[in-house]
């Protein structure tokens, strides 16, 4: 699938905002720590991906009831659902000068209970296209990996069940995603109000 930039300006995929607060000291400190382990942009991006995937548990797996939505809060609490983890990874990538944005899938439970799942798209120097990665966090049955050539996402879309890969690379999380995160009292409340489509 060819990914489509929502904005024609690559600089928009390096910007900071209220959610992608990559100028926050927590994000800057984490990015600097990760950069010490990396020799180039590719190694940094892979290290940042693995950090968010493995060191920030998905709250559905950990049972953490808190809802974080700013990158700095996700990194400070080490907690978040896929949307929040995508925000944290995007902030870490942008903090190191790697253009990054948001992509989404619409997934179901065997054709029922649709939900929008959050991913990250990144574009490294020397690569002429965007690549999607999934920092959701691995568990039995989920084995997401960092790969620029062959996608290794948590889930592959099953079109026969009405699942969808959305091709847009968003500069910021869509309003539906941010509203769900910002208005949730806790994870149980968030779970009841997750977006079902974009």
Automatic annotation (TrEMBL):
Source organism superkingdom: Bacteria
Matches recorded under InterPro entries: Papain-like_cys_pep_sf, Transglutaminase-like
Chain ranges of the Transglutaminase-like domain: 29-135
Protein name per its UniProtKB record: Transglutaminase-like domain-containing protein
Organism: Streptomyces microflavus
